[in-house]
Amino acid sequence: MKSALRDAVLSALVALGLFLPMIGLKTNSGAHGLYLTFRPVPVALAVAAVFVGRLLLLAWRGRSRAAARHANRAFAERLTRAGKYVAPLLLIVALAVPLSGDRYYLDLGILVMTYVMLGWGLNIVVGLAGLLDLGYVAFYAVGAYSYAIISTTYGLGFWTCLPIAGILAAIWGIMLGFPVLRLRGDYLAIVTLAFGEIIRIVITNWVSLTNGPNGISGIPRPTLFGLKFTPAGGPGSFSDFFHLPPSPTWRAVYLYYVILALALLTNWVTLRLRRLPLGRAWEALREDEVACRSLGINVTVTKLTAFAIGALFGGFAGAFFATRQAFVSPESFTFIESAIVLSIVVLGGLGSQLGVALAALVMIGGFEVFRALAEYRMLVFGGALVLIMVLRPRGLVAGRTPTVALGRKREISAELVAQGRG
Length: 422
Hints:
- Helices cover about 70% and strands about 5% of the residues.
- The two termini are about 40 Å apart.
- The protein has helices spanning about 1-20, 40-60, 65-95, 105-130, 135-155, 160-175, 185-205, 205-210, 240, 250-275, 275-285, 290-295, 300-325, 335-350, 355-370, 375-390, and strands at about 25-30, 35-40, 215, 325-330.
- The protein folds into 2 domains: about 1-60; about 75-415, no CATH class.
- The protein has 16 helices and 4 strands.
- The chain has a two-stranded antiparallel sheet. The chain has a two-stranded antiparallel ribbon with strand order 3-4.
- Helix 5 (about 135-155) packs antiparallel against helix 6, helix 5 crosses helix 13 and helix 14 (about 335-350) packs across helix 15.
């Protein structure tokens, strides 16, 4: 107890040093310029929260390892049982979002579903194959620019360019996979991070192809069997064909269902692949590459397929992003995008499809919920993420259900599963 109190006091002192200038001092404008005001109450509350939180954390970690593993397995099994009902419920809610008729919820749903699809694509590389990829935004950018260039140059539609964009992104995924076949851990992460930056720099400087920093505008919108979603209606439009009042909301509804279908396709393919020998080879590679080689598994093909299939879905998401925005530029494909997608995968639980969907809903949708808190929303949101990672350090859904088992499948505790270090 004495050691825990000493640790909590030290943590509170560190918090005092950090929060004193950040929270305690506030600039205000006056008649003679800016002046500082001191706010002791917020500082005291923040320091007290750190002190109490550190004590609770030490008490939480004071459990025996066996007891913690048993509790985590029981919690994972409950989550698995609940997932049988949560997943259909989430699907029903996702299908019903356009029924609200609110454009704000439609745009937010499109954004969340885009990150869900990106998270599921990266989950193949990081969660299943155990290859730490920090440059996933590169495939997102390749898909977006492939669609933008092909559609504006040759006049092809969205559904024609979508598979082309995905295939081109998959080819770039294979090109990334070859140089990193012998790399693991931090070295793999650094190379993939560099790959993402190389793609962004190439897009910025290859002006003759990508229009450089100015980006590409006038990207064609998707159509429904040739019917255009024009706000004013008119002959050949969606609203005219179905005798509906012209509205820009129809395009948003259509885009929402398109990204929902693409995300569900990503989920379905991933679940099917996990049951195939390829998916089991990915999981074996994640657990132990040396043991994987000793079993006769071709590690080269296993890694390349993980990069290629993950990049394929990233390219699909990039093509959708381009047609939704009708404009792409290098500023949309920075490292922060890769960091957000990787955070979604880690927060949800590496290898968990349901966990990734919940994490995307929490991170992207939750950020919008806290928008009303103005300047405090980043503090609240960051604190919530820290709390989740303290209580569930291996993600919201950290357990694993074995793909193949003799007899009844039992949930595997997160402490017994490798988390993907390349």
